[in-house]
Write a structure and sequence with these properties.
Structural class: alpha/beta
Shape: globular
Number of helices: 18
Number of domains: 2
Largest sheet: 7 strands, mixed
Strand order of the largest sheet: 3-2-1-4-5-6-7
Mean pLDDT: 85
């Protein structure tokens, strides 16, 4: 039996994250295990520095989301303690950053991944690693997977680089897998740190470009998450490396799924009261994305401020997404906004169930992103029956087609006119989502990727 080894390295180290890439990894892993026919086995792995360790699917989720919590049982003390300490750690980082005036160098140190010089590295090596070693000595568990797991790889196997491993030293592990006879496929989410580096952390832009140059020696097939990404990737790599260097490479794409939590679990039972209040009354326009410059929250907030200034209507903007980088001024603007808690709401930590509730209770999604690899909230919204207004970009048109209302980013009035039309005349028939509408589901998305991964 041949094996697809799925790299989940970053998510295994950061299971609390739930943005686009983490969602792709979790959904793909879950579906590959049901899709794989008899001749394929699925194994999850963590790869770094020549090591190749097996993972369990439960390693990809926060402990608080394990079945005991879903069943309403009390979480074990060690899980509650872990959650508490994580909260203290995150709050402490934000406090130190604020005291230092959000200095760029300080933030780099505080938020660097644990395999880069910074606070995370010191905490990992000086606190967490010794503590875990002590626990293992006390409990004397069975032997854990180690670098010897690379010996499991056989000729004909596939190593799927699905996770975000740009910061990690993965290539010795990949080289070892290839030496055992595996082929290597890399999923490419976008080229934004290269093509639009002004929107990214400087260090990310540097390591991301280096990752691509290094990958040429090891990756056999590159698969983009949209046809737009595939075309951009081929153009970039041909320009940077030349056609000769890529003569044996394969390029392809698949599309992401748009179904998140089922509608049946988004009832108001146990929903946080402040989220219910946000959607209780008024026309609620929703944006779901990490708060970072390219997502263009500033454009959106400017537009709604123009609307609020000229109208007393209860038209609300609800922002959902964890804070990213280069948005300190925007976050301060939101926190101090006179409409916060009235016609402006911000939630940074919603889970899939609460995001589903938000989709189900909004009037429309507004997605003004400047550049995307896909634009997953567009498809998620349509699959929930929620009309969508999105910036007019090639990938948004690829994902949304004629079902979406597009606006220009060169003119705030372009979006403003759409909202005024929605409020005065209702949702135009062309943008109403028919009952039972479904774009690509995660099962279909995973099948599309699976077929291309195993293709000879």
């Amino acid at each position: 039996m041949k094996t697809i080894f799925i790299d989940c390295s970053y998510l295994a180290d950061h299971p609390e994250l739930n943005t686009g890439i983490q969602r792709v990894v979790r959904k793909t892993v879950a579906n590959f295990k049901t899709l794989a026919p008899g001749e394929w086995d699925i194994q999850l792995v963590k790869i770094s520095n020549g090591q190749f360790s097996l993972l369990q699917e439960s390693d990809l989720y926060p402990k608080a989301e394990l079945p005991a919590a879903q069943a309403g049982q009390s979480l074990p003390f060690k899980v509650r303690l872990s959650n508490y300490l994580r909260g203290v750690y995150q709050a402490g980082r934000e406090f130190v950053s604020a005291v230092c005036g959000h200095h760029k160098g300080v933030r780099h140190f505080l938020y660097a991944p644990k395999n880069q010089l910074g606070l995370g590295m010191f905490v990992h090596w000086l606190l967490l690693k010794p503590a875990r070693a002590a626990v293992r000595l006390v409990r004397r568990p069975a032997a854990q997977p180690s670098s010897s797991d690379i010996d499991r790889v056989q000729r004909g196997d596939v190593l799927l680089l699905l996770d975000s491993t740009w910061y990690s030293n993965i290539w010795p592990s990949v080289e070892a897998a290839k030496a055992q006879g595996a082929s290597v496929t890399a999923v490419i989410y976008d080229l934004i740190p290269i093509t639009h580096s002004q929107f990214c952390d400087d260090f990310l832009a540097k390591v991301f470009k280096g990752w691509f140059h290094d990958s040429v020696a090891y990756v056999d097939r590159y698969i983009g998450i949209s046809q737009t990404v595939q075309r951009d990737l081929e153009s970039f790599m041909n320009r940077e490396l030349g056609t000769q260097a890529l003569r044996d490479k394969q390029f392809d794409y698949f599309l992401l799924g748009g179904d998140i939590a089922e509608r049946t679990v988004t009832a108001t039972v146990d929903m946080r009261p402040e989220l219910q209040r946000a959607f209780d009354g008024g026309s609620c326009y929703l944006i779901v994305s990490t708060v970072e410059p390219r997502k263009n929250h500033v454009f959106l907030l400017d537009t709604f401020e123009n609307l609020w200034r000229d109208s007393a209507q209860d038209v609300r903007l609800i922002i959902v997404g964890r804070p990213g980088w280069k948005v300190d001024a925007l976050l301060e603007r939101i926190r101090c906004h006179p409409e916060l808690g009235r016609r402006l709401y911000y939630f940074s930590d919603l889970d899939d169930r609460e995001v589903g509730y938000s989709y189900d209770n909004a009037k429309a999604l507004v997605f003004p992103s400047i550049v995307e690899g896909f634009g997953l909230p567009i498809l998620e919204s349509l699959n929930r029956g929620l009309p969508v207004l999105a910036s007019d970009t090639p990938v948004h048109r690829e994902v949304g087609g004629e079902q979406v209302g597009y606006f220009s980013l060169d003119d705030h009035k372009s979006l403003l006119r759409w909202i005024e039309t929605f409020e005065a005349e209702g949702i135009p028939e062309a943008l109403q989502v028919e009952p039972g509408f479904y774009g690509m589901t995660w099962l279909q998305s995973s099948q599309m990727l699976f077929d291309k991964v195993v293709r000879d």
